[in-house]
Amino acid sequence: MENITFTMPIITTFYASLLALLIFPMVILIIKRRLSSKIGLGMGRHDGLRDEQQLLKAVRIHGNYIEFVPIMLLLFALIEMIGADPYLMHGLGILLLAARISHGLGLYDSAMRTAKRTFGVLATLLCLAITIGTGLYLSAPYAIDQITTMVQSSL
Predict the structure, then answer these.
(1) Residue 5 included in any domain
(2) Number of domains forming the structure of the chain
């Protein structure tokens, strides 16, 4: 099997930078909600006050973002480094950016299901599935070849 030529994940770096910029408005929203609710730490007493609900929503927008984006960017970098098509990388980057913006805006609008939130979730999962599939497609032949070689050499 031929050797893989690794490339620097420049496209991933571009989208990682754009996605990192989105953290600022999320953190600012949390700070504003904490100040208005006078809750410095935690989520309050959970007695249904509007300020507490708004704080919880802001924290979950940020939390959901942080739960998905880092693993996506790690996978992006890995598939880009082993030769994923640049058009695919840009498509995935744009899709993830649109998905996360849409999800955040949808959750900001309402804690209930909204079209923006639904699109954000589905587009994020689609992006994740494509990225995983690409990673397996690009790496499996090399991984299987290495496993086969290791097994044969140990016999």
Answers:
(1) no
(2) 1
End-to-end CA distance of the chain: 21
- Does residue 4 fall inside a structural domain? no
The domain spanning residue 49 has which CATH number?
A: 1.20.120.550
| Distance, CA of 102 to CA of 119 (rounded, Å) | 7
- Prediction pTM value: 0.83
> Comparing C-alpha atoms, which of 33, 26, 23, 32 is closest to residue 55?
33
pLDDT in tens, 77-99: 999 999 999 999 999 999 999 99
Sign of CA dihedral 8, 10, 15, 21: positive
Does residue 142 form part of some domain? yes
Are 96 and 72 spatial neighbours (Cβ–Cβ below 8 Å)?
yes
Domain of residue 50, residue span: 10-154
| Residues whose CB is less than 8 angstroms from the CB of residue 65 and which lie 6 or more positions away in sequence, other chains included | 22, 23, 26, 100, 103, 104
